């Protein structure tokens, strides 16, 4: 199963129409139907009831929809964390006299590190 197939399924369910979802995704209706069919085959269950009035979720489709929303949130968090990890090379160097570096800056750095955990800080 590919995440794209799951996204197509999600869009079809929200719009309740394969043709409208295909139009929004800029693909043909038959290509979208094939993606949904592959998803159903990989899950081993029929997920949608198709009719001339649109689509309806089957009981198994309701389960897949519930988990699909969680999968998308987790996938987006993963992508964000990967982008932030790329930025972790950034090093911030702070130079200060001993009184400030020993008393004021440690507390301030603690707060800053919470807001910007992917930066490296060096106190000189």
Your description of this structure?
By secondary structure, this protein is an alpha+beta fold. It has two domains: 3-85, Arc Repressor Mutant, subunit A; 90-123. The protein contains five helices and four strands. The protein has helices at 3-15, 18-25, 29-43, 59-86, 98-115; strands at residues 48-51, 54-57, 91-94, 120-123. It has a two-stranded antiparallel sheet. Strands 3-4 form a two-stranded parallel sheet. α2 packs across α3 (29-43). The longest helix is centred in the middle third of the chain and has 28 residues, at 59-86. It is rod-shaped and about 75 Å long.
- The H-and-E topology, N to C, reads as HHHEEHEHE
Task: Determine the number of helices (DSSP H or I, runs of at least 4 residues).
Answer: 5
Strand segment count? 4
Level-1 CATH class name of the largest domain: Mainly Alpha
| CATH topology type of the largest domain | Arc Repressor Mutant, subunit A
**What characterizes the major β-sheet?**
2 strands, antiparallel
Query: Portion of residues in helices?
Result: 55-70%
Task: Give me the side-by-side strand order of the main sheet.
Answer: 1-2
How many separate domains make up the residues?
Answer: 2
Percentage of β-strand residues: 5-15%
CATH superfamily placement of the largest domain: Winged helix-like DNA-binding domain superfamily/Winged helix DNA-binding domain
Distance between the termini: 51 Å
Supply the CATH architecture of the largest domain. Orthogonal Bundle
Radius of gyration: 24 Å
Structural class computed from helices and strand pairing: alpha+beta
Q: Could you report the average pLDDT, rounded to the nearest whole number? A: 86
């Amino acid at each position: 199963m590919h995440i794209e197939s799951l996204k197509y399924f999600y869009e079809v369910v929200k719009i309740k129409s394969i043709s409208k979802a295909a139009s929004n995704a800029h693909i043909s209706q038959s290509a979208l139907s094939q993606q949904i069919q592959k998803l159903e085959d990989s899950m081993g269950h029929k997920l949608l009831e198709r009719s001339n009035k649109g689509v309806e979720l089957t009981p198994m489709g309701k389960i897949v929809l519930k988990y699909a929303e969680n999968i998308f949130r987790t996938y987006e968090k993963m992508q964000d964390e990967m982008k932030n990890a790329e930025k972790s090379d950034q090093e911030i160097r702070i130079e200060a006299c001993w009184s400030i570096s020993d008393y004021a800056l440690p507390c301030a750095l603690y707060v800053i590190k919470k807001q910007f955990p992917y930066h490296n800080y060096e106190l000189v």
